[in-house]
Amino acid sequence: MGIFSFLRRRRPGDYDELRIELWDAVRAGRPAFASLTPEDCSALRRMASWFIDVKDFVALGGVRVDEGDEATIALLACLPVLRLGAGWYDDWSTILAAPDGFVHRMTSVDGAGVVTEYDDLLSGRVTELGPVLFSLPDVRESGFGDGYNVVVHEMAHKLDERDGGLDGCPPLPRSMSRRAWRAAFGDAYADFQVRVARSSSGRRVGRASRLPLDEYAAESPDEFFAVACEAFFDAPQRLEAAYPEVYELLGRFFSGGA
Ligand SMILES: [Zn+2]
Predict the structure, then answer these.
(1) How far is the CA of 6 from the centre of ligand 1 (A)?
(2) Distance (Å) from CA 150 to ligand 1 centroid
(3) Span 85-142, pLDDT tens digits
(4) Model's pTM, two decimal places?
(5) Domain count, the chain
């Protein structure tokens, strides 16, 4: 071993696969893992071991984050970058786990310039180049096939912001057109806003809704992207049926531009 070998950054492929009992516990009932090939499963388990090693997990408010919780966050978080590569997560290091949803003070400005402040109950949040905050109960409910996946949602924001801003378009591989992305996502977002306006409820009805995506997707283009990513991994048929172009673009993006 060379004297500078300790300086070499360890990469996911250098790690052992995540322990089988943790892998089995996390993947049970979560359809996104069922569609992976054996090679993908192996790569994902190594990447999850890397993730747990290099990211700092910080428990807030007396919550207990056990090995299973770390494995759940790591495996769900690594799913989107399985093909893109772990480098997409190299600009942040901390995961904060909260005992429950948390209230965030929001500000909105309407067309007449009237500023309204309101409290929004969130299950996760990213800060630019900073920590990712999760509600642990929401993590434990994520990925069971109903399109709800707070981990993938927040990771989608992390991918989106890598080119400097949250706008619903992450940095794309050369083989993909930013203009085509904006057109497809813009059309789908506009359609979804119409669907939400037509639906009787103004609340976030989410999983039980007849809408193809969680109503939260109508908040902004970046939230539409994050919610579409949740659906891509967790309820892909529903996304494909409603917005086939978005589904196809996400498939190409997550496979590295193929
Ligand atoms: Zn979001």
Answers:
(1) 37
(2) 8
(3) 999 999 899 999 998 766 655 566 666 776 666 566 666 776 666 889 999 999 999 9
(4) 0.87
(5) 1
